[in-house]
Backbone:
């Protein structure tokens, strides 16, 4: 077995080789109870591998988002419908303003990873996290004439 050149997944684990050799010859050994220590160790290894896979997938998604962030041009109609009656005057102001030209300078290409992380941390939906646009409106960063810093729910990922 030590000279086997098979792939690792196909090899018999070291701790099970003595049992396999016995079963192929004298058959003195028999299967007993579940080995709790080995089972716990295998479970930890499996969960660690799953965690590493999820972490790698998340890192890939972040790299893609940084390289190709979603552009946010205007608030979507669903966002306007979700706003309460106090915000209707602001929504009307947005509705009446003319739409900006399709130009790369009119697109919001600034990554916002901290907003996305905090939204995940507190279990807030992407739409709710995108409501930070209201703060930008209050500070005058986003105006009906300059919508380049609007945060859309697609950007919060």
Residues:
């Amino acid at each position: 077995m030590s000279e086997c050149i098979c792939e690792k997944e196909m090899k018999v684990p070291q701790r099970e080789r003595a049992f396999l050799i016995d079963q192929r010859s004298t058959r003195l050994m028999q299967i007993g109870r579940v080995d709790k220590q080995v089972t716990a160790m295998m479970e930890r290894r499996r969960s660690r591998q799953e965690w590493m896979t999820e972490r790698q997938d998340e890192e890939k998604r972040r790299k893609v988002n940084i390289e190709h962030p979603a552009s946010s041009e205007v608030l979507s109609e669903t966002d306007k419908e979700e706003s309460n009656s106090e915000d209707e005057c602001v929504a009307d102001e947005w509705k009446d303003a003319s739409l900006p030209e399709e130009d790369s300078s009119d697109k919001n290409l600034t990554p916002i990873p901290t907003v996305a992380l905090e939204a995940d941390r507190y279990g807030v939906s992407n739409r709710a996290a995108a409501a930070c646009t209201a703060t930008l409106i209050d500070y005058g960063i986003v105006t009906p004439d300059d919508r380049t810093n609007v945060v859309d729910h697609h950007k919060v990922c």
About this structure: The two ends are 49 Å apart (CA to CA). Residues 36-67 form the longest helix (32 residues). Residues 8-66 form one domain. Residues 62 and 113 are 8 Å apart (CA to CA).
